[in-house]
Amino acid sequence: MTANKYSVLNTRVHNVDGYAKVTGRATYTFDVKLPGMLYGKILRSPHPHARIISIDPTEALKLPGVKAVVTGKDTLGVKQGIWRRYPELCDEQILTIEKVRYIGEPVAAVAAITEEIAEQALDLIDVQYEVLPFVDDPMEAIKKEAPMIHEGVERNVNVTRHIEWGDVEEAFEEAEYVREDWFKLGGQAHMCMETRATVASYTSDKKLTVYTSTQSPYYHQALLAGVLGLRESDIRVIAHYVGGGFGGKFELDASQFCASILSMKLSKPVKIVFTREEDFVATKRRTPMYYYVRTGVKKDGTFCAREARVFSNGGAYTGMGATALYLTGFFHSFPYKWKAYRYDGYRVYTNSLPSTSMRGFGAPQAMFCSEQQIDWIAADLGLDIIEIRRKNAHTTGYEVPGQATIGSCGLNQCLDKIEQWIKDRGKLPKNRVIGISAAGFMTGGIFNWFDTPYSFSSAVVTINYDGVVELHVGAQDIGQGSNTTLAMICAEALGVKLENIKVHSGDTDHCPADLGAWGSRQTLMAGNATKMAAEDAKKQLLEFASAKFGYNIVYDVDIKDGWVYNVARPERGMHYVDLVKEALRGKDGQRIVGRGHYTPHRKGMISPAYSYMVQAVEAEIDAETGKISLHNCVTAHDCGQPINTLGLIGQLEGAASMAAGYGYLENMPVEDGKVMNPNLVDYKIIRAPDMPECEIIEIDTYEPEGPYGAKEAGEGLTNPTAAALGNAIFHATGLKMKQAPIMPEMIVNAFKEKKKGGGTP
Amino acid sequence: MSLKCPVCGKLKKDPVDCARHMFGTGDKPHKAWFEAQGLSYIDLLLSQATEPGNKAYIEVGGLIAKAQQG
Ligand SMILES: [Zn+2]
């Protein structure tokens, strides 16, 4: 074990906001109470597809305690979306005027003095619909006779994406073995502990304050300005604490829009908190996909060519789904070198709840198909499952043609560690089997579809008289611990102790703009901005130190653990706080302020850096009931330089839990456009007793683009688990799992087949 | 027989490859070319994506080749 060269980084630190959270003092949106506050509720469409003929709120307004009812006609009718650079993809009105396109779509909103009265009022709003034919499956929606969901969008094809490199046909001809499969992947709910919630407060000076549960306060500030006709700076978005996002909370949602519209109408604060059922049926989900994969390899396992085709169930609106469609195609090539690769993706509108980004952003779907097919190919060719992956693995410096350059890659070390773990595990108990999967993921998306002139991430560091450092960032902590990570980077860069750092985030009036917590941006992008701001502040301090000590150049001086010293003679120096005091006097009382920003330039199409991982799951499979239990989940993980090892483990365990749920539990059936299990009884997620032992084997690499060599951890690990589980089942039963989640009846049938055939089919 | 994309001029190795490029690019100018020929871009694209064989690519590739020969 090598000594830690850092003072703060690569240690185990509890979250800087831990005390506030465990003592219940952390204020989530649900806890916000303002004087005179009203409560809002939303009336939702009972039809998957219908034209709105009329909405009559007369009876609702007569109910004592009801203060207002708003419909689409009370809005500017702006079609909004996150793709501001591509207006045709901004297709959602939130309070719709003409048509509803999914069950649960907002039709009207009520504000009343209590939540109960608002709820009662919903029943009194008279909406007349002309019910239209609907379609909720993408393969049906592309048929010529299918109903048109958005005017002018032929065959309901919302977005197409194409990725191609090399000569695919030629490479398939070189292949000595070709295999093709179709897969079907289901949706998944984000299942945040905190449901969508907003308190909007508009005052007659045309200022709007919005407390909301968001992954990007800046996005919401800008998006609300667009739909409400206000200036961005007249809107203040506050989200100090957020109970999870997972990709579902950076688009504008109905709680934010309706609470704001009602508040503007009444000049009173309005609070809307979604119920768990609303969070299930009326927000967006992980994208369901039909996946076709054709792969050509040499007999020795060398990968030649791959062709993939995806039809995704986009639901009623675009949301972030267009990016998921692109990324699933990109990550389907991961983490291997393909001589030639072709992907065609089709996102199809349907009359069901919209699909959007979710932790992994298209990659879990891709990995489920790719990593299982690799095991099937290995079995057909009699090859070792580790060796076939090793032979084709990405390596540092590899260029994914036209897409990305891999600055650091520890995939082969990950494979070595997992191979060793499997050997050490030895003979397994009865009915137990191990499956593996590899994966890679991005470290922050280089997508500026939001069309913002601001930096992707910014930070401001201010040093107070007592040595306390105020770090202002726009990056939102959504529970993943990014404020702790950024505080650690700030402390390390400045050379002070972690307890000297105070992080301020989640308030657009006081924090610089940042695109938000999505696509694993925080550690690398906000981390780089923070490091730059801290180094800027440190340089200013050292100028004073240098002047005081009388050394001839600035670089003779440094700060570490709060001690400012001569590098050649560390005993000569002074305490950091004393230096800060001198510096303040030297600057005529002005505080030291450092600024930092980060926007990736010339870093490829997708991301400046990529993480890698290989996972082994040990599962027990009950032949009678089809029940799957996970017993071990071991991941060799390359995230570059770890920052907070405790936070890292928490993130990786959380990801494995969500990923396993995607693999075998989280079934989200939609029938006639309706989610059939919108509650925590019928929608099964991994609970504490279901959670296997998780072991993380950290692989040391250094990412040149990351702060101190750090890159992504925690999102990418939602990618391999479902495939690893599928592979475990394949090795136990011989059955190829072509549908996720893997349901018990599929296992039972597999064992029945095996019994009938007298062996592995 | 190498062919030039009639829209952006990219050189492609044969008619099918050229058609594939045109569908794959699928931006406004490439889509407009289909319409100018009296073809439905989306119908051909989906027939190619959902039916076996390379019918749509062969049809479109044939048209491009014919136009360039002519
Ligand atoms: Zn072209």
Notes on the protein architecture:
The complex is a heterodimer of chains A (761) and B (70). Chain A is α+β, with helices and mostly antiparallel strands. Chain A has 18 helices and 33 strands. In chain A, helix 6 packs across helix 7 and helix 16 (645-664) packs across helix 17. Chain A is globular. Chain B is globular and about 30 Å long. The two termini of chain B are 15 Å apart. Chain B is built from 4 helices and 2 strands; from the N terminus they run ββαααα. Helix content of chain B is 64%, strand content 6%. In chain B, helix 1 (15-25) packs across helix 4. At the A-B interface, strand 7 of A face helix 1 and helix 3 of B. Bound molecules: zinc ion (ZN). Zinc ion binds at residues 5, 7-8, 10, 21-22, 25, 30 of chain B. Zinc ion binds next to helix 1 of chain B.
User: What can be said about the biggest beta sheet of chain B?
Assistant: 2 strands, antiparallel
Run of helices and strands of chain B: EEHHHH
- Strand order of the biggest β-sheet of chain B: 1-2
| Largest interface, counted by CB within 8 Å of the partner chain's CB | A-B, 15 and 13 residues
- Give the biggest beta sheet of chain A: 7 strands, mixed
Enumerate the strands of the largest sheet of chain A in spatial order, edge to edge or round the barrel: 3-5-1-12-9-10-11
Q: Helix segment count of chain B?
A: 4
Specify the number of helices of chain A: 18
Give the uncertain stretches of chain B in residue-range form.
none
What does the radius of gyration of chain B come to? 11 Å
The oligomerization state is heterodimer
What integer value in Å does the Rg of chain A equal? 27 Å
Give the overall form of chain B.
Answer: globular
Poorly predicted runs of chain A are none
Measure the end-to-end span of chain B: 15 Å
Distance between the termini of chain A: 47 Å
Shape of chain A: globular
> Quick check: average pLDDT of chain A?
95
Quickly list its features.
heterodimer; A: about 750 residues; alpha+beta; seven-stranded mixed sheet; 18 helices; 33 strands; B: about 70 residues; mainly alpha; two-stranded antiparallel ribbon; 4 helices; globular; binds zinc ion
